[in-house]
Amino acid sequence: MSLELEEVTGATGDVFEDFLIVFRRCLAKYLDIGEDMNVPDDFTPTELQTGKWWRHLLAGGIAGAVSRTCTAPLDRLKVFLQVNPTRENMIKCLVKMINEGGISGLWRGNGINVIKIAPESALKFAAYEQVKRLIKGEKNNQPLEIYERFVAGATAGAISQTVIYPLEVLKTRLALRKTGQYNGILDAAKKIYAREGLKCFYKGYIPNILGIVPYAGIDLAVYETLKKKYINKYQSHNEQPGMLLLLACGSASCTLGQVCSYPLALVRTRLQAQEKAAKVAEGTMRGAFREIVQREGLLGLYRGITPNFIKVIPAVSISYVVYEYASRSLGVNMT
């Protein structure tokens, strides 16, 4: 994506740096905790004035829709493992899903997962730009510091998540639904509302918002640290680092953010899936944490993380290729 590298990171702006940033953006979207929580892109003043920013967002939306659709079975498998307290492995869980809903059932919940891309991206971009303006104040020409980007990104993520969160709950319920339970998204929303009320569409909201802080913070901090070490080592010698090193830098920051925030994502999904809690404590974040640790141990907080890691390679590869072709068709460059 056409980023203002000097503003974002103070980097050199060479092809390898561009590739690292684009790769990391793709990786952050699919090595995720349920939704895109990475800090939004910074667009150049030229892109904002000429309107190219919306083309980048559109290209990203197309890439995200194709990639999410291709890897939807792994995402649904992850959700099933997250909410299943028994120690079933991936193969048994996958067989059970196919037996219950057939091959096409593996894509349950994907429709709303694709639909929510547009409002989520637009809200996050708009909020991010507004928060950046508030932080910069009179220093419009000064680049944001790392902590300022984190604050702006986390705030934008919290705002966009607050608005589209009911779609997240619907996505989880549709992914877990049995054959014939709902006739589409609207029918599911009506039945869930009639049965549980409006409050149910914000189940798991607190752990979801709390997950933004470790994910975005660790991701950004580790990435910037690796970037600075790379610049100090290679820039003075006019050397180009190997491609594997660049991929490792881009992967490390997202992976660490994922590992640290995944327990919150699991608790969020468990709460989203609960139709009615038998006890008040069971419907709370603390109660869910306690129940998972008591019944499944600490490793239970990472149930479903394996298919989440498995889907990364195909998801990033598909997204990268589709984004490149989509951006070319829309008349913007990828880097």
Which features would summarize this protein structure in a list?
335 residues, mainly alpha, 16 helices, globular, transmembrane
What would your notes on this structure say?
It is a single chain. The protein has 335 residues and is an all-alpha fold. It has helices at residues 5-8, 15-30, 45-50, 52-70, 72-83, 90-101, 110-115, 117-136, 146-176, 185-196, 205-210, 212-234, 243-273, 285-296, 305-310, 312-329. The longest helix has 31 residues, at 146-176. Keywords: Membrane, Mitochondrion, Mitochondrion inner membrane, Repeat, Transmembrane, Transmembrane helix, Transport. This is Calcium-binding mitochondrial carrier protein SCaMC-2.
Explain briefly what this protein structure is:
It contains 16 helices and no strands. It is an all-alpha fold.
What is the helix fraction of residues, given as a range? 55-70%
Averaging pLDDT over every residue, what do you get?
78
- What is the count of DSSP helices, taking H or I runs of 4+ residues? 16
Radius of gyration: 20 Å
| Helix/strand order, N-terminal first | HHHHHHHHHHHHHHHH
- What is the structural class? mainly alpha
Largest sheet: none
Work out the number of β strands: 0
Low-pLDDT runs of 5+ residues are 1-13
End-to-end Cα distance, whole Å, is 5 Å
Instruction: Tell me the overall shape.
Output: globular
Oligomer type: single chain
Work out the strand percent: under 5%
